[in-house]
Design a protein that fits this description.
The structure is a single chain. The chain is α+β, with helices and mostly antiparallel strands.
């Protein structure tokens, strides 16, 4: 039994090692405009607020990264996410947030 424990010890130590530090998404160069708010060199996810009167929310991607407008998932089937290439703009009445990259 001691021999089995001795053989398994290296495996237990390998399993408890900490992994490499998770990499942060690269910061996009440029500007992201959602409604009337402009973000400089955006990274990560930004909320998408819709007007109470139902007018569409403008989104302008003046960055070097594509943007994904994440849509609500409580519909069956869920609508497809909208992707904006660098330099594109759109107006939308749907979506929860905008993700850079």
């Amino acid at each position: 039994m001691r021999r089995i424990n001795r053989l398994l010890t290296p495996l237990a130590k390998a399993a408890t090692r900490t992994s490499a530090t998770p990499t942060q998404p690269a910061t996009a160069s440029g500007f992201l405009t959602i409604g009337s708010t402009t973000y400089i060199n955006p990274t990560g996810t930004y909320p998408l607020f819709h007007a109470a009167d139902g007018t569409p929310t403008p989104i302008i991607n003046d960055t070097d990264h594509p943007l994904t407008i994440i849509t609500e998932s409580d519909h069956s089937p869920p609508p497809a996410d909208l992707i904006l290439a660098p330099g594109e703009r759109t107006e939308t009445r749907r979506g929860d947030c905008v993700q850079v990259g």
